[in-house]
Specification:
217 residues; alpha+beta; Hypothetical upf0131 protein ytfp; six-stranded mixed β-sheet
Length: 217
């Protein structure tokens, strides 16, 4: 344990999928839905925005799997629960521990307040399965600036499946917000398990080109 560890009143939530995008993640705190989606989020009990955010890299493989009705039947992002399985770009959002729990609850089709994560136990053992659902495993990824970093993923390795255009667009735009160029984001996403089943790297780059800061100069 780091001697500079500040405790678990505030924690970093590491997003690696659609919650890389600030607009998308905001609905998990404030409530509401994005774009044409008809099913929205309730929002956290404390809707205060994250007090900080930053990009980071975690030692876990990014992969796409499952079939999400919310995202046009395509696969969604997961990380391999094994540390050292790969490297993924994450965006860290500084939240209260209760806000993290409410985000995790909504990802698992639960109401905010219905899920209470034992963050100390997760940090001690590395992961904890809190619910039998797609994102039911909470992972400790390390500490950043004296705060614990947590995320959630599937308790089991799900079969890979390609993401739909709508989902890949949101994840890609989040990567651009994290500072990646269009080409870097396209290469990174194409290398993730499941994506190359339906997408080429040039196709991803074309999808993201209109969102790139360079294209608006």
């Amino acid at each position: 344990m780091s001697s500079e560890f500040l405790g678990l009143d505030r924690v970093w939530y590491a997003s690696y999928g659609s919650n890389l995008l600030a607009e998308r993640f905001g609905y998990y705190l404030s409530g509401g839905s994005m774009g044409q989606q008809t099913v929205g989020h309730i929002g956290a009990r404390d809707s205060t925005p994250a007090t900080a955010n930053r990009s980071w890299k975690a030692r876990h493989e990014l992969r796409f799997g499952g079939e999400s009705r919310r995202w046009d039947g395509g696969g969604v992002a997961f990380v391999n629960a094994e540390p050292g399985s790969g490297e993924c770009v994450v965006r860290l959002w500084l939240l209260t521990a209760a806000q993290f729990d409410d985000v995790a609850a909504q990802e698992n089709q639960m109401r905010p307040g219905d899920l209470v994560v034992d963050h100390a136990a997760v940090r001690d053992v590395g992961h904890l399965d809190v619910v039998d659902s797609w994102y039911g495993r909470v992972l400790w990824l390390g500490d950043v600036e004296g705060r614990a970093v947590f995320t959630f993923t599937s308790p089991v390795v799900r079969s890979s499946s390609p993401p739909a255009r709508s989902y890949l667009d949101v994840v890609g735009r989040g990567l651009l917000e994290c500072g990646l160029t269009t080409q870097e984001a396209a290469e990174y996403l194409h290398n993730a398990a499941g994506v190359d089943e339906s997408w080429t790297q040039p196709q991803i780059a074309e999808l993201l080109s209109d969102e790139s800061p360079e294209s608006n100069r």
